[in-house]
Amino acid sequence: GLGVDRLGLGPAGRTDVTRARMLAALLAIVGVAVAVFGEHGTSTVALLPAVLAFLVGVSSAAQQAVNGKVNGVSRQPLSTTWLNFATGTVLLLVLTGIVALARSDGGGSGAGTPPWWSWLGGLCGIGFIALAAWAVRHTGVLLFGLVTLSGQLLTALALDLASPRTRGQIGTQVVLGLAITLAAAAMASVAAGRRRSQAARRASA
């Protein structure tokens, strides 16, 4: 998010890397590290999925910037949603064909029928992409990413606490890591507010 905002790839334009923004980004990383590694150590964490998830986050920052810019140029709120889901549908169709060919060759019987509620993910995705493309124009990529991360962590914590299978995995380190990440989002939000106030004063002077 820092890099994307610094390069001005998003619709909010170029935002310099300030100490407050850098500290907020580093604090978020610390919070996630505390939540993931602090309770159980690195021996119980699958590093490859963690690294891949990190790369997904890197790609997501660039995607949000491009989505917001496309949304601003086209002036159509659902244009980015259409592009994202059209691309995803084509990819899923290709993967479905590959899986079907593998099964016809005796490669396995598949995982069975998914539960009905799993299909709600697509509907949630439509809303998320449309709202994200709009919101990133006003917040920038870094602040949007930190606020989104905070919402994901809070919801994940609530879901884990609601399930008897995962409730016992929630310890002090997880809650502490979540608190640190929320503090990072708050710090970035305050810095953004100050930056907007300074810009408004300069414009009126």
Q: Would you tell me the overall average pLDDT?
A: 82
Order of helices and strands: HHHHHHHH
Low-confidence stretches: none
How much helical structure, as a percent, in the residues?
A: over 70%
Task: Describe the protein in words.
This protein is mostly helical. It has one domain (2-104, 119-204). It has helices at 2-7, 19-37, 47-74, 79-104, 120-139, 141-162, 164-167, 172-204. Helix 3 packs across helix 5 (120-139), helix 4 (79-104) packs antiparallel against helix 5 (120-139) and helix 5 packs antiparallel against helix 6. The longest helix is centred in the C-terminal third of the chain and has 33 residues, at 172-204. 23% of the residues are buried. The mean pLDDT is 82.
Brief summary:
The protein is mainly α and 205 residues long. The chain is 77% helix and 0% strand. It has one domain.
Task: Sum up the structure in keywords.
205 residues, mainly alpha, globular
What is the topology?
Blueprint: H1 2-7, H2 19-37, H3 47-74, H4 79-104, H5 120-139, H6 141-162, H7 164-167, H8 172-204
